[in-house]
Amino acid sequence: MSQQKIPATVITGFLGAGKTTMIRNLLSNTGGKKIALIINEFGDLGVDGDVLKGCGAENCTEDDIIELTNGCICCTVADDFIPTMTKLLERAQRPDHIVIETSGLALPQPLVAAFNWPDIRSEVTVDGVITVVDSAAVAAGRFADDHDAVDARRADDASLDHESPIEELFEDQLTCADLIVLNKTDLLDGEGLSRVRHEVASRIARKPAMIEARNGEVPASVLLGLGIGTEEDIGNRKSHHELEHEGATPHDHDEFDSFVVELGPIDDPAGFAEKLKGVIAEHDVLRLKGFADIAGKQMRLQVQAVGGRIDQYFDRAWAPGEARGTRLVVIGLHEMDQNTVRKAIQALV
Ligand SMILES: Nc1nc2c(ncn2[C@@H]2O[C@H](COP(=O)(O)OP(=O)(O)OP(=O)(O)O)[C@@H](O)[C@H]2O)c(=O)[nH]1
């Protein structure tokens, strides 16, 4: 008798929507299922891997967490994702379930389509694609572009064939969903949330289930076991790019850029965060995350900024022999001036 296919859940969603937070919560309540986690993030710091490995889940040990670091998963399917899956499937102890966290800038379509490759298809199936949405960011209009401005730009430059890259990606990630998690409900009231629900629904023709969550707290029984087999339906969930350029090469990430800023110790983390908000707003930084060395503290500070909202918390002690330091990854649109932003952040300490 052939072995049953292993279900794989793809978790996607724009930068900072709460994917890692949701997975962290999931790993603490898997109902005994052994999970293998494949994670991919944009930027050179490996913050998500560090956060998830640090959560010490029994059913997903450090060995079960695989980081894909050679670029965005949707562009490295053949070179990175498929070989990783093949190796995972060769393990003596196979996982009960595979969870894949895409980078916040990934198109889920090419990844899901990879499950139709013969070697993978015979052993794994996509249990479902879950798209996490930052409800507060939707309410603030972060994905609703200024269409007049875009039209004006297009009139100036005939080669511009699509709308804002952020808006497109947001819609492409929704288009792929079997389940949409409207996260960060704590930041909105009932009316605001209902507007977000309508706005999200209006962006896609399909009507996947939509649930609300705070801090990604959704029971494993809801997230795992959707049983969809999404790879068989992926042809009906085309991205903007696929619709505009049938048969064209996949998209790249030229529209976005990331870089790492290194700093010395920070004396006043609250003051630093306040001033950082100003830099983020002035330079349209989309996402900033990393770890900070706070003078006189044994613990390192995790810094997470999504747009102008900054969270900071001490996550663990600096390990013996570990080089203390402040390292922050900054992600923005390509036109962001790296040198100016780097200098502006360095000037804060
Ligand atoms: N207020 C609030 N903050 C949240 C919630 N969920 C996540 N966050 C915060 O949002 C920030 C980003 O969360 P992550 O889980 O790292 O988001 P992500 O989607 O994994 O981010 P990328 O991997 O960079 O795309 C962190 O500071 C979280 O603590 C929520 O429901 N409410």
UniProtKB/TrEMBL annotation:
Catalytic activity: GTP + H2O = GDP + phosphate + H(+)
GO molecular function: hydrolase activity; nucleotide binding
One GO location term (cellular component): cytoplasm
Record's keyword annotation contains Nucleotide-binding: yes
One of the GO BP terms on file: cobalamin biosynthetic process
Domain of life, per lineage: Bacteria
Keywords: Chaperone, Hydrolase, Nucleotide-binding
Gene3D superfamilies to which the protein is assigned, alphabetical: CobW-like, C-terminal domain (3.30.1220.10), P-loop containing nucleotide triphosphate hydrolases (3.40.50.300)
Domain CobW C-terminal: 274-348
CobW/HypB/UreG nucleotide-binding domain mapped to chain residues: 7-208
InterPro entries per the UniProt record, alphabetical: CobW, CobW-likC_sf, CobW-like_C, CobW/HypB/UreG_nucleotide-bd, P-loop_NTPase, Zinc-reg_GTPase_activator
Assigned protein family: Belongs to the SIMIBI class G3E GTPase family. ZNG1 subfamily.
PANTHER family: COBW DOMAIN-CONTAINING PROTEIN, COBW-RELATED
Function of the protein: Zinc chaperone that directly transfers zinc cofactor to target proteins, thereby activating them. Zinc is transferred from the CXCC motif in the GTPase domain to the zinc binding site in target proteins in a process requiring GTP hydrolysis.
Protein name, UniProt field: Cobalamin biosynthesis protein CobW
